[in-house]
Design brief:
By secondary structure, the protein is mainly beta. 12% of the residues lie in helices and 45% in strands. The chain has one domain: Jelly Rolls. Bound molecules: fe (ii) ion (FE2). Fe (ii) ion binds next to strand 3 and strand 6.
Length: 182
């Protein structure tokens, strides 16, 4: 198990993966990683009942985001555009609810068939990985507050979100906080 001591070390390790981040190498970089809370603290912000997205680093190849999940906060059901996504849990517990999506008309049409499949609970140091449009899930805190570190390669500017009935819409990505120097 790898342990990195500062958030800057993780950014350097990700930059060393090159211009096109291979998911297997991102997974190897994130798995088991625990960041010294003193270096992560500056990126953590909290909002009642929801999660906040706090940019840590971004370039053409990837973005690294610290997500702070308030108690019972959860994401919309979403895909991952054309990117690969991996995250590692830093504190708390996170539930991932997975969905199978089928498009009776055409991929990207306004309505799809959505079916819940598996659910998994992550503990500290564990990772979850997703790729692209067919990888659909909902993520949420399940035991008080949680902090996760997400790598999107390439950065995601918008993804598809799904209502339970299969209605879809495009949701632009946004950050709650951005560092002075990215
Ligand atoms: Fe996701």
């Amino acid at each position: 198990m790898t342990t990195l001591h500062g958030i800057d070390d993780l950014v350097v390790a990700l930059r060393e993966l090159g211009d096109v981040l291979q998911p297997v190498r991102v997974a190897a970089t994130l798995r088991g990683v625990r960041i010294d809370a003193r270096t992560l603290e500056q990126f953590l912000t909290w909002a009642p009942g929801r999660y906040t997205r706090n940019l840590v680093a971004r370039d053409g190849a990837f973005e690294l985001i610290a997500i702070c999940w308030d108690q019972d906060a959860r994401s919309a059901i979403h895909d991952h555009a054309d990117s690969d996504c991996a995250f590692v849990l830093q504190s708390g517990a996170i539930t991932c609810e997975n969905y199978r999506v089928a498009w009776p008309d055409a991929p990207g049409s306004p309505r799809c068939e959505l079916r819940a499949t598996t659910t998994r609970t992550l503990r500290e140091g564990e990772i979850d990985m997703r790729s692209g449009h067919l990888s659909v899930h909902r993520v949420g805190a399940c035991d008080g507050r949680a902090v996760t570190l997400h790598v999107y390669a390439k950065p995601i500017d918008a993804c598809t979100v799904f209502d339970e009935d299969g209605t879809t819409r495009i949701m632009p990505s946004r950050y709650d906080t951005v560092p002075a120097v990215v």
